[in-house]
Design brief:
CATH class of one domain: Alpha Beta
CATH architecture of one domain: 2-Layer Sandwich
Number of strands: 4
Shape: globular
Bound molecules: iron/sulfur cluster
Oligomer: single chain
Strand order of the largest sheet: 1-4
Helix content: 10-25%
Structural class: alpha+beta
CATH topology of one domain: Alpha-Beta Plaits
Mean pLDDT: 87
Strand content: 15-25%
Number of helices: 3
Order of helices and strands: HEHEEHE
Radius of gyration: 14 Å
């Protein structure tokens, strides 16, 4: 048997698949607590956190899967994970 790693979806396919519908929790970015460090954007595995013209960061909810990594890594605890309303 081949030792190659197999994946369910091709890497980088998040943008094609609009994975936001998979989400149970949504990250809410609290700009009053944000120091604009950009760590959330660096750690987001899907690259869906973008910088606003004001220097803050926001997720693209069409593609954010709600994994919570951004909230975990934020040094200012400026991202809250809230239950998604269906
Ligand atoms: S990691 Fe937290 S403090 Fe840094 S830019 Fe993102 S939300 Fe702001
Ligand atoms: S919850 Fe996950 S997918 Fe969504 S913005 Fe944060 S790190 Fe990215």
């Amino acid at each position: 048997m081949s030792s190659r790693i197999r994946t369910v979806a091709k890497p980088g396919s998040t943008r094609v698949n609009r994975t936001g519908a998979w989400r149970s929790f949504r990250p809410v970015f609290v700009h009053e607590q944000c120091n604009k460090c950009g760590i959330c954007a660096m750690y987001c595995p899907d690259g869906v956190v973008v910088k606003t013209p004001e220097g803050f960061y926001i997720p693209d909810y069409d593609y954010c899967k709600g994994c919570g990594i951004c909230a975990e890594e934020c040094p200012k605890k400026a991202i809250r994970m809230v239950l998604e309303e269906k």
